[in-house]
Amino acid sequence: MSFLIDLAWSALGLAVMFAVLSVVVLSMVWLERKALGRLQLRYGPTRTGPFGLMQPIADAVKLILKEDIIPEDSEKAIFWIAPVIVVVSAFVIWVTIPGGDGVFIKNLPLGLFYIIAFAVIGILGLVLAGWGSANKYGIMGGLRSAAQLISYEIPVVLVAAAVAILAQSLDMREIVAAQSSYPYLVVLPLGLVIFFIAGLAEVGRTPFDIYHAESEVVGGPFVEYSGAHWSVFFLAEYINTFAIAALTALLFLGGWGGPALPDVVWFLFKTYAVVLVVFWVRGTFPRLRIDQLMAFAWKVMVPLSFYTVIIAAAYRFYALPWWSLTLMSLVGLAVAGWIIYRRMTAPARRVVQIQERLAAQRRATSTSRT
Amino acid sequence: MLEPTTSATGTAAEVRADSQPVEMLLNMGPQHPSTHGVFRMVLWVDGEKIVDVEPHIGYLHRGSEKLCEGEQYHQVVTLFDRMDYIGNFNNELAYCMAVEKLMGLEVPERAEYVRVILCELNRIASHLLYVGTMGLDAGAMTPVMFSFRGRERVQALFEAVSGARLMHNYFRIGGLKEDVPDNFRELVNDLMPLLREDVEQSDRILTFNEIFLSRLKDVSPIGADEAIALGLTGPLLRACGYEYDVRKAQPYSIYDRFDFEVPVGLDGDCWDRHWVRVQEMYQSLRIVEQAMAQLPDGPVASPLGRRLIRPAAGEAYVRAENPRGEIGVYLVSDGTDKPYRLKVRPPSFCNLSALRRLLADTWLADSVVVLGSLDIVLGEVDR
Fold this sequence. Notes:
heterodimer; A: mainly alpha; 14 helices; globular; B: 8 strands
């Protein structure tokens, strides 16, 4: 009997989770369109309701009413199952992500491990979607997503491990509780940067939107999907973005900790702040190329995340003062930042070189004329 | 890897007929978001690397050159508007200069100045469009909004002057259709600071962005000798470090009266092409400022140009610096009121012919960037 009650509670919890996440996705769609609009000298939606608030609903209705086309040559079963895999893996990790001290479906002692393990399953759905749709762009996108998502899983896992070392727990509630005096942002800024960047790559957001790059593989795995099937991928993408933002807030920004306001408000405030940064990045950066993406993962992110684990472990093992961790973390950040700065200014130096050479040429010709 | 185009024994399809099974044939276009119109590339790819490419053009072929033979001289101007539909004024100027050269027609001072001002503004508008689409090709969606604001402002001025935003039909043989509006000076003076700001903003957001650099720098570099052999002109040739601009090399119209520089690159890669175009916008702003300061009063059309035009039998060839490169117009007259033959050397077409060489040893994602850096206009490629 108690098993049945448990089951009923779980079903109710899942239904509530589904409803809440749907509202979150709608809010994110609106926020993204508005934020991007403001970044791009536009207003974003204005005609549907006050401030265009009804726009995501209009979008959703349009998507669901559209004809759902299944290509003749596609593997029907795989074509059907792929969106399900993607969306289930996106939803299922939310079971244990807490939205406040006591706001969760089921708190697991190995919560962080569970989240990371189930988030990877979505890759399978993307690869299957690309392969099953019998489209060359789809196959390319699917293989790109496999390469990209597996590579960036490593820094995510390692940085999460560093946080677990600091908090001495994989339980999300205890990780947040361990940040009650100061958020891990203070001691592990390097970890935050790695986690955020790798998280962007995990959910395929600009500048890592390579597997569904519109200008190259025209949507990648989603190229043959339309109507409700496509909207399922869309839903999963936004839920994943929100999950990465929520995890960034929980692991590094102190979770729901904060003065005065209730837990859930602080959690949502921090998460939406990270979401806005994601949109900001989308409005600013171009897209990397697949080889540069892989090189960045294996040559920059993985070594830096190993470094993060090592400094976190050393800090724990030798019981160093907290600021030493901040210092070591900042050193790592500074080295990476310096390399990027040098690379960025290299063409500027070349431009100066060109201009000097041209000026020398002009001087030479003018003297020869006179 | 890819054979050099000069020694290849046939078309890409013939060369690749018995290729390795690892190669996948990918049909990019004519309906593809990054082919800048209806252009089709058949790509042979090995994973993400491009092995070979065969471009297919002609989806926008309207027979413009043949149509020119059926129209009177004044009517041909509209056909030139529709070739390079991004650089309309520059195209009109090239045609008008060809007829004027054939007839030995003098163009009034004021008309020359207005022509130069409009052409240089059109160059800026064209390069702004390039910057925006280049950003889109590289995956950045914001620069296009910044650059299109500037382009829109220029087009508003064009509309005030000629009555049309795109297909102006404003230049006439021997001058202009009519004088510019009375408030032309104010319009341009109001536009200039705003336009400079737009150019600077679209420059700042993109040119030295770390990701943009890594996408464009060292992608499909080409040397000056090879670029000349392939017939590249305009920003593509200048990006190789070869200082060649028709406005300086063989000044036409009144370009010899202005003080401006010809920006050149160093490596001839995609980023240098981008940088050269961005710098050209600043130079064009300089030219417009000087021309506005010198703009004289007077008539804007030669009285001879008002009549039905019947040039004496003969031929003329003029060249001009379009935003995309060197345009050449070869005009043959048989003494009637219609051209006997009109041949255009379209810069886009000649630049596009180097595509197979430029895509050697690149990645699939580079194909859109390289095509974007060529800055083709399919209306001009196919005519």
